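To the wet lab folks,

You asked to see what we're planning to order before we commit. Fair enough. Below is the target structure as tokens, and below that is the sequence we designed to fit it. If anything looks off to you, flag it before the synthesis order goes out.
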């Protein structure tokens, strides 16, 4: 028997971690994940063949990012997510808040720019077109906090608290589109905050942290709203299959708790990444200052000492 036109069996057994993590190989996301790994690996290999290096940490971050997508979309979690709000919320939170951070730490745009050859003077090849896109008005708009923060918030409230969610969950294609949307919104929101790849908006580290904290509370409020509700708020999950032995309201409360708890996960991940980037930036700046001092005989320090000596002489 089917559920909501997905071809999902109504008689799924009660959820267990083993059943949830069993590999199912959802075709669309499995293909995308394999393609993402293959393209990234080929690019890294090309760099190394020509004698250039690529940080291992970035490769690991990319692989982990792709793996988190496969974990929630190519396993039993995707099947149970069709009929259990709590499992769906795990999928949503991972694919919109964990996977994007890891993928962005992989610096795919930087890697692409390093691999693509220059077309030469007066010509436009793939590399030049990508650079033009990164500096286009459209990218400037979709990467600006005035756009990304409301979009991040609307993907929660404008989806779950309207009939749009039930409509998308009514077909396999709609479900794929929704999950792709969650991933795209997460990438758009965290891209300027992470600041690893080039882009039109690169605020300072303090401003990035403020942008991060501007969006996170709304996830917590969304989770609390689900937890405080006295009746199921999403029609799709209002009547779970009897084979699950599940209470819809209790499952919704669990979903709200997951959404609330996950609001802290990206904050920690991003803060650690930003603090590390900040430290490395200060370290590079210190090295540049040392090299400049070696070249000019530390004239800046000498001038400052002369200034202090002048002040002291005038004070006498």
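Sequence we intend to order:
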């Amino acid at each position: 028997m089917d559920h909501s036109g997905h071809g999902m069996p109504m008689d799924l057994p009660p959820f267990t971690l083993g059943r949830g993590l069993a590999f199912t190989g959802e075709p669309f996301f499995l293909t995308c994940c394999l393609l993402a790994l293959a393209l990234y690996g080929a690019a890294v290999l090309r760099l190394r063949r020509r004698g250039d290096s690529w940080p291992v940490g970035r490769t690991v971050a990319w692989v982990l990012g792709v793996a988190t997508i496969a974990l929630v979309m190519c396993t039993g979690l995707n099947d149970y997510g069709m009929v259990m709000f709590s499992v769906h919320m795990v999928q949503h939170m991972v694919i919109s808040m964990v996977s994007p951070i890891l993928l962005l730490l992989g610096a795919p745009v930087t890697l692409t720019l390093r691999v693509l050859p220059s077309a030469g003077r007066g010509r436009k090849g793939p590399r030049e077109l990508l650079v033009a896109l990164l500096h286009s008005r459209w990218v400037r708009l979709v990467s600006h906090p005035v756009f990304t923060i409301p979009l991040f918030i609307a993907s929660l409230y404008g989806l779950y608290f309207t009939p749009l969610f039930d409509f998308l969950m009514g077909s396999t294609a709609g479900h794929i589109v929704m999950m792709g949307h969650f991933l795209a919104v997460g990438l758009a929101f965290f891209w300027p905050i992470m600041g690893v790849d080039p882009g039109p908006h690169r605020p300072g580290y303090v401003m990035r942290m403020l942008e991060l904290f501007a969006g996170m509370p709304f996830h917590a409020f969304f989770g609390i709203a689900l937890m405080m509700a006295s009746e199921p708020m999403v029609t799709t999950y209002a009547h779970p299959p009897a084979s699950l032995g599940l209470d819809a309201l209790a499952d919704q409360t669990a979903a709200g708790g997951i959404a609330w708890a996950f609001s802290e996960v990206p904050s920690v991940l991003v803060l650690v990444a930003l603090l590390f980037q900040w430290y490395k930036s200060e370290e590079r700046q210190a090295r540049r200052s040392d090299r400049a001092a070696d070249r000019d005989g530390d004239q800046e320090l000498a001038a400052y000492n002369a200034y202090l000596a002048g002040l002291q002489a005038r004070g006498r």
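Structural context that might help your review: Strands lie at 2-3, 8-9. Residues 1-9 have pLDDT under 50 and may be disordered.

Thanks,
Computational group
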